[in-house]
Write a structure and sequence with these properties.
545 residues; Diaminopimelate Epimerase, Chain A, domain 1; nine-stranded mixed beta sheet; Amidohydro_3; Metal-dep_hydrolase_composite; hydrolase; YtcJ-like
């Protein structure tokens, strides 16, 4: 009888208890850095329908919800899904199908890799990327002589690591119709003995590109999916691709809608007349995984190839100033055109002359406007007085790549001299002016790994831990600033801060699980942090083996 009464009482209590709420996923036993306004921490969170439902502590959340799936973080660290604010995902994918020249320490090694590639692939047109003469004992640009000898009948195009110069052989020049008399504004066909040496800088590279074999939709899709796989392994949940044509943007959209491509993308539209006409007429485009709301413009070239445009001549090449790819007048015209639309203008600017041309064009076009979030991509060398163009009304934002500083520091001062270096790679200075700074890698120019970005921003050292006391440490970021630059500030630069960039209720359940505490681990361990798992929309899209 007592057992029956007890059972009835238990049933009565159970019938009065509120029903548990349903949820799809519980993350527990984690150190969660939410990157909210208070930079608060938690140890558990709940996901439903791809969004964060609640954040708190493990016992209370477990009791409150009926959970379909649980992920035990086992004490590891979770940060908001990492965002690369400036990269070339499609370029990375294509590079995986070409000769990889990254890390070559001599021109002889470049030639060896090209020969080995062709012996295996037997391509009708050999395309490669990644050489950097600054890493060689002989830091002069190579010439086409050796390529002509090795490949007299096969065109060869080898792009420099920054994408702003290429070495081609005579067959490639012949196909493109390039001679010593060819002139193209916005770049240079380098001559020697009144003949092309094989080095082409910036705009004239387009003549070579027009002769490349056609890239099919199947090849493009494979490139995107291969690059996505790498990004997910490194904990990236959103990538800003700095320059895509309409066909690739639409291919990404199609792959995402078919469920084949999970990565979120912020696409900067390449600034061609055809792309401008289409997107300005049709407006911005937004889905949960794709955001098309900016144009990518090139003001100048790169510092490594001396294509960056300087106010005074290069310190190591008197009389040479670089060259504007887009003139100041054209920048003004484009800025006025984009200001009349909802699109952002995101402009590559490296040299101090290019940066001031971009900043002036932005300032003029955005007069009387607020919160347009136009981006200066790279903002690499800026005259001290010009930092004031960045202010906290969110019209002009810096988008920078910390690993450029630690890659370039070996030779940058030779290019521009000690005085101009005071305004070079000045991330903290820009942050103080603009209130935010978006961080990226520019891969495949640099490596994909966002932990290298974090380390370069905070320690200002390369992977050899050089220099011992850091490079121009006055412009180092704190760990909190660096993490914000890779999450909430990058999202803000994309007009996406209300849906991603922090772990907060109602936002997408995008987060990255790390094997070490990024906020507390010894500084020298930062580049060694590994990604354990990557979640997008509450779905585990990568798990380390």
């Amino acid at each position: 009888m007592k057992k029956l009464l007890f059972l009835l009482l238990a049933l009565s209590i159970a019938s009065c208890a509120p029903d548990k709420l349903s949820a799809d996923l519980l993350i527990k036993n984690a150190t969660i850095y939410t990157v909210d306004n208070d930079f608060s921490t938690a140890n558990a969170l709940v996901v439903k329908d791809g969004k964060i439902l609640e954040i708190g502590l493990k016992p209370e959340l477990e009791l409150k919800y009926n959970i379909k799936e649980t992920y035990d973080a086992k004490g590891n660290t979770i940060v908001p899904g990492l965002i690369d604010a400036h990269a070339h995902l499609y370029g990375l994918g294509l590079a995986l199908q070409q000769v990889d020249l990254v890390g070559t320490t001599s021109f002889e090694e470049v030639l060896g890799r090209v020969v080995a590639f062709q012996e295996e692939k037997n391509m009708p047109y050999i395309i490669g990327r990644g050489w950097d003469q600054n890493d060689w004992d002989d830091k002069n640009f190579p010439t086409k002589k050796e390529l002509d000898s090795l490949f007299p009948n096969t065109p060869v195009s080898l792009r420099r690591i920054d994408g702003h110069a290429m070495l081609v052989n005579s067959k490639a020049l012949e196909l493109a119709g390039i001679t010593s008399k060819t002139k193209v504004a916005g770049g240079e066909i380098v001559l020697g003995n009144n003949e092309p040496t094989g080095i082409i800088i910036d705009a004239p590279m387009g003549l070579i590109g027009k002769t490349f074999p056609e890239i099919t939709a199947e090849v493009s899709a494979e490139a995107l999916l291969e690059a996505e796989k790498i990004c997910l392994q490194y904990g990236l949940t959103t990538v800003d691709d700095a320059g895509l044509g309409r066909n690739i943007i639409e291919l990404i959209d199609s792959l995402q809608k078919d469920g084949k491509f999970k990565l979120r993308m912020y696409a900067m539209v390449s600034n061609s007349p055809e792309n401008r006409d289409y997107y300005l007429n049709n407006g911005t485009y937004k889905t949960d995984r794709l955001n098309v709301r900016s144009f990518k413009v090139y003001a100048d070239g790169a510092l490594g190839s001396r294509g960056a445009t300087m106010r005074e001549a290069y310190s190591d090449m008197p009389g040479h100033f670089g060259a504007m790819i887009t003139t100041a007048d054209s920048l003004d015209y484009l800025a006025q055109k984009f200001a009349a639309s909802e699109f952002q203008m995101n402009t590559h600017a490296i040299g101090d002359s290019a940066n001031i041309a971009v900043l002036r064009a932005y300032k003029k076009a955005l007069d009387g406007k607020t919160d347009r979030r136009w981006r200066v991509e790279h903002a690499q060398i800026i005259s001290p007085q010009d930092f004031n163009y960045f202010d906290d009304n969110n019209n002009i934002l810096p988008s920078v790549q910390p690993t450029h500083a630690t890659s370039d520091m070996y030779w940058a001062e030779d290019r521009v001299g000690a005085e101009r270096m005071k305004g070079a790679y000045a991330f903290k200075t820009m942050l103080d002016k603009a209130g935010i700074v978006a961080l990226g890698t520019d891969f495949p120019v640099e490596q994909v790994n966002p932990m290298y970005t974090f380390y370069a921003a905070v320690a200002r050292k390369d992977l050899k831990n050089y220099p011992e006391n850091g490079f121009q440490m006055k412009d180092a970021l704190t760990r909190e600033e660096a993490l914000k630059g890779m999450t909430i500030w990058a999202a803000f630069a994309n007009f996406e801060e209300k849906e991603k960039g922090s772990i907060e209720v109602g936002k997408f359940a995008d987060f990255t699980v790390l094997d070490k505490d990024i906020m507390k681990v010894d500084e020298n361990e930062l580049p060694n942090i590994k990604v354990i798992a990557t979640f997008i929309n509450g779905e585990m899209v990568y798990q380390a083996k």
